[in-house]
Structures are given as structure tokens and as C-alpha cells.
């Protein structure tokens, strides 16, 4: 396939627009966070288990599910491929055999693609090498993930960029020079790029997550969607990342954190992913528009909690009010306490009983407002 022929022409975008479209879903600052359930190899090489993970991710509200695709013979040296693998998480006697056990082939990917379409969730994958990128292009993936380990792999970046699909790039282990180099490499070919802050610990120490890099990326790349690929084992950091400007969040997803495999322990189970998606949606709504206002829902609670000005004791007509004549008590159905300074020195036109509300209609003075507004 001629990758140059299928690559789309660079799009001239509004510099103020920070958006990316994946499979018909527009990702931008104003919308909900785009949540990727990273399945990786948590399917344990079992197609039915993988489809179940797809279905559960959809039920949790995730926007996408993601796998990882490797051409293991091309990716690893012969020595590494044939090296003994004695890990408790091994699915083969050698590292190559372990990796091959976890790989899905073309027929598997086609079944998974059909299943994803049937349940209404976007499915794409990480391309770890050139052959895998071509494999995914032939399958028709709607987007591509670039793993942190390949942020310095400019040949792979160029190859994937030429396919012309949206690219989501993780940045674990990189410094800012690495990120800029990768950004420039992709953007000169394909502007459909998102950059994720990531720390390649599994899981990382919290002091190494450095979520403020999200702000750094947003400033450095003002037209690019920024996100977070978070390998921590909870859901709080995703919400913190969203508040800092991440509009894509990728979290590992599993059926059971105790299952065999290297990624299960720090992955989210069904309940965790569901809560994370819920909280991210709530956060967008709760941010509001920044205009301070009073809401109807506050009226009833504040009727009982806020105060009005009342007579501190029985007061006769003609009495000139002093500070000690005023008390501030609920319910909130009279003059609020901020009027108190205006009332001192004014004269009562009628007697007031203790706890009776004081209003301007009960007072006379040359300084009294002609028609004061009562603000509850």
C-alpha cells in the first residue's frame, strides 16, 4: 500500500481550536473527557475474554478500547526473542513464545472490530513496529497509539503519520526535547495528533507522575489536544489531570486485578472504570462558566441558614436605633445583616417586639432610603 497516497493533506486549523476527531467523536476543551480503556494484553490471548472486556468497557461509559500489536520477530532481537522467560506472569517458556501467545492475528482483529462496531465503541491499537502499523492500516483502524518507548522512533512516527489517521502519542521516559522532536516529526505530515503526559512506571510513584506537565504541553502545543496516560492504580489522578487540561485519559482495564499478567495489578476493574468515567463527566459539568450566581436550589437551605435583622428586645415607637438594638436571626425573610449600618441612628415609627423583623417602612430619617431593596 502506498502510504503517501492515503495520507491526507495537512489541515489549516484555527490557532484557537484545540480539537481532534476520532471515529466521529470530537475531542476538545469544551467536551467530555475521551476515555480509553487500555486492554493491552489483559485478554490473556483469549478472544472471548477480550470481547467481554470490550463490552464491559462500553457499559462503563468508555469511548474506546485499545489493544497492542507487535510483530514479535521483527520487533525483538533473536537473542531477546529466544531468551528464557521465568516470570510468574509468563505465558511461554521464552520471551518470544510468551509474546506470541498474547498476540491476536488478522481474523481475531476482524472479529474484534465487528464486535466493537456492534456494541458501539471505538476500537484501535498501538503499533509497535512498521509491520504492525501496516497490519492495522489494512484492518482499517480509526486511530493509532504510539507507545512511550517509541517517542524517539522517528521512522515509525513518520510511517504511522503517513497513514493519515489520528495519532495519540504517550511521552513516558521522554524529556521536552524528545516530545518536541516527535511532535515536529508527526505534525509536518499529519496534524491529527494528541499528546499524553505519561510516566512509564508500572505503577509509578505519585511524586513521579508530574501532572503539571499537562499544563506545560498545553502551553507548548496550543492547537493540540493534551491528555494523560496514567498507570497508577486508582482513579483520582485522572480527575486531577482533567482539571489541569487533559481531555484524553487512558487507563488500563481488566476483569480481575488478581489475574495472571504484568498489567492487571494496576488496572481498573469494572467498578473503577465506571466511577472514573462518571467523575470525569461530573467534573466537566461542575466546572460551569465561572459566573458567580445564586441558584434556585439554594433558596430553601438559605432560608434556614441565612439571617435577617430583628429587634434585639422590645422597642418603643420613636426609639432611635443603636447597634445593641439589632439582632441577626433566621429565617432569611427580611433585611439581610449588611443593612445594619444603615439602620443605626434611624427612628422607629411604631413599636417593635423582640425578634420582630425590622424594615425601612418602620423607620424614619433624613438619611433613610426612599425605596430600599430587600435582598434575601
Please, could you describe this protein's structure?
The model is unreliable at about 1-15 and about 370-375 (pLDDT under 50). A hairpin with a 2-residue loop joins strand 1 (about 20) and strand 2 (about 25-30). The protein has helices at about 5, 45-60, 70-75, 80, 95-100, 105-120, 130-140, 155-165, 175-185, 215-220, 235-245, 270-285, 300-305, 340-345; strands at about 20, 25-30, 35-40, 65-70, 120-125, 145, 165-170, 195-200, 225-230, 250, 310, 325-330, 345-350, 365. It is elongated. It is built from 14 helices and 14 strands. About 35% of the residues lie in helices and about 15% in strands. The strands form four sheets. It has an eight-stranded parallel barrel with strand order 3-4-5-6-7-8-9-10, surrounded by seven helices. Helix 2 packs parallel to helix 6, helix 7 packs parallel to helix 8 and helix 11 (about 235-245) packs parallel to helix 12 (about 270-285). By secondary structure, the protein is α/β, with parallel strands linked by helices.
What's the mean pLDDT score? 91
Could you give the order of the helices and strands? HEEEHEHHHHEHEHEHEHEHEHHEEHEE
* Biggest sheet strand line-up: 3-4-5-6-7-8-9-10
Which value, in Å, is the CA radius of gyration?
Answer: 31 Å
Report the structural category.
alpha/beta
- How can the largest sheet be summarized? 8 strands, parallel, barrel
Amino acid at each position: 500500500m502506498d502510504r503517501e497516497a492515503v495520507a491526507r493533506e495537512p489541515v489549516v486549523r484555527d490557532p484557537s481550536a484545540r480539537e481532534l476527531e476520532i471515529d466521529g467523536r470530537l475531542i476538545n476543551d469544551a467536551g467530555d473527557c475521551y476515555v480509553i480503556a487500555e486492554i493491552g494484553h489483559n485478554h490473556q490471548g483469549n478472544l472471548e475474554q477480550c470481547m467481554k472486556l470490550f463490552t464491559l468497557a462500553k457499559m462503563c461509559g468508555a469511548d474506546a478500547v485499545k489493544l497492542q500489536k507487535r510483530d514479535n520477530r521483527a520487533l525483538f532481537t533473536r537473542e531477546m526473542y529466544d531468551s528464557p522467560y521465568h516470570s510468574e506472569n509468563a505465558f511461554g517458556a521464552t520471551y518470544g513464545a510468551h509474546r506470541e501467545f498474547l498476540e491476536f492475528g488478522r481474523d481475531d482483529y476482524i472479529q474484534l472490530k465487528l464486535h466493537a462496531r456492534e456494541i458501539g465503541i471505538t476500537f484501535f491499537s498501538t503499533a509497535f513496529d512498521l509491520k504492525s502499523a501496516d497490519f492495522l492500516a489494512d484492518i482499517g483502524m480509526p486511530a493509532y497509539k504510539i507507545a512511550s518507548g517509541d517517542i524517539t522512533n522517528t521512522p515509525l512516527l513518520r510511517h504511522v503519520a503517513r497513514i493519515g489517521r489520528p495519532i495519540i502519542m504517550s511521552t513516558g521516559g521522554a524529556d521536552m526535547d524528545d516530545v518536541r522532536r516527535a511532535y515536529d516529526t508527526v505534525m509536518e505530515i499529519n496534524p491529527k495528533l494528541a499528546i499524553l503526559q505519561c510516566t512509564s512506571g508500572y505503577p509509578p510513584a505519585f511524586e513521579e507522575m508530574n501532572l503539571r506537565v499537562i499544563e506545560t504541553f498545553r502551553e507548548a502545543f496550543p492547537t493540540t489536544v493534551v491528555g494523560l496516560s496514567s498507570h497508577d492504580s486508582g482513579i483520582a489522578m485522572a480527575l486531577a489531570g482533567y482539571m489541569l487540561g487533559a481531555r484524553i485519559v487512558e487507563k488500563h482495564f481488566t476483569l480481575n486485578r488478581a489475574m495472571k499478567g504484568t498489567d492487571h495489578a494496576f488496572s481498573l476493574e469494572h467498578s473503577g472504570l465506571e466511577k472514573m468515567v462518571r467523575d470525569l463527566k461530573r467534573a466537566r459539568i461542575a466546572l460551569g462558566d465561572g459566573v458567580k450566581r445564586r441558584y434556585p436550589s439554594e433558596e430553601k437551605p438559605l432560608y434556614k441558614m441565612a439571617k435577617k435583622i430583628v429587634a434585639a428586645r422590645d422597642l418603643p415607637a420613636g426609639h432611635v436605633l443603636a447597634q445593641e438594638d439589632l439582632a441577626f436571626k433566621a429565617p432569611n425573610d427580611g433585611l439581610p445583616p449588611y443593612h445594619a449600618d444603615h439602620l443605626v441612628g434611624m427612628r422607629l415609627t411604631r413599636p417593635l417586639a423582640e425578634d420582630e423583623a425590622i424594615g425601612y417602612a418602620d423607620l424614619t430619617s433624613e438619611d433613610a432610603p426612599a425605596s430600599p431593596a430587600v435582598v434575601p
